[in-house]
């Protein structure tokens, strides 16, 4: 994968720059890279989560323009990551509480051995060409994300596997022989990383024409004008913005801190919604003891806010 040009940065839409990134590469020295990377991020005031493993790096970070620039430059200074691609958006508030660099077995967990996107992968499709592909009646469009993500946004006509985790995706494919009924498979995810493994898996399973959206939904929402878009809804993001819409503007979803599901303005008025305690998605699956515990946590958050502090559990 080659590095794409980045649009000029500006602070319209928020003072904090958010960078989503991933790169697959053979990286056996990943353990020794954790400490210097985390130290630099903290020194630059950058927050977020970065995952590093034998197979590469993945994550999202936020900070000042200068801080993000310096961290990305350091990552790209490593010979394994010179071609690293990132996607930018902005946030009005710092969307992360802390900085974490974690050592992992996989940078995106699919649970299938011998899947290497550097050796086999689907065909990349630029956002400008995506509408034509997914409008082709000979194409099956598959959303590789999880159910709480697809609940708030999906491409028109896409198949939703309704998976709880990405680990369920391989079994879903094997249990759906109808996927062989059309010659083309088009796949997409938030930023592109899940499709690297998902398309590799599909190729491994004997599917010939497998495509995926280059840069994911985020790149599509950034580049494709809303009036031409085939995207319906908002895109879930893994930070405190919760969702983004066309032009990568912050969405209006909130997060239920009991179950981590995104909730709409309408769901905020549901009788089962209680801030930090429950929502219509999780009320029936939690006990009253659970909710009492969440209320205590929410009380501590409120008290910290009064003191001008930010509670770690918020």
TrEMBL record:
Keywords attached to this entry: Oxidoreductase, tRNA processing
EC number(s) recorded for this UniProt protein: 1.14.-.-
Organism: Rhizobium wuzhouense
Top EC class, one word: oxidoreductase
Protein name as annotated: tRNA uridine(34) hydroxylase
Job description of the protein: Catalyzes oxygen-dependent 5-hydroxyuridine (ho5U) modification at position 34 in tRNAs.
PANTHER family with a match to the protein in the record: RHODANESE-LIKE DOMAIN-CONTAINING PROTEIN 7-RELATED (PTHR43268:SF3), THIOSULFATE SULFURTRANSFERASE/RHODANESE-LIKE DOMAIN-CONTAINING PROTEIN 2 (PTHR43268)
Keyword match Oxidoreductase: yes
InterPro entries in UniProt: Rhodanese-like_dom, Rhodanese-like_dom_sf, TrhO, TRHO_N
Pfam families: Rhodanese, UPF0176_N
Reaction(s) catalysed by this chain's protein: uridine(34) in tRNA + AH2 + O2 = 5-hydroxyuridine(34) in tRNA + A + H2O
Domain Rhodanese intervals: 135-229
Record family assignment: Belongs to the TrhO family.
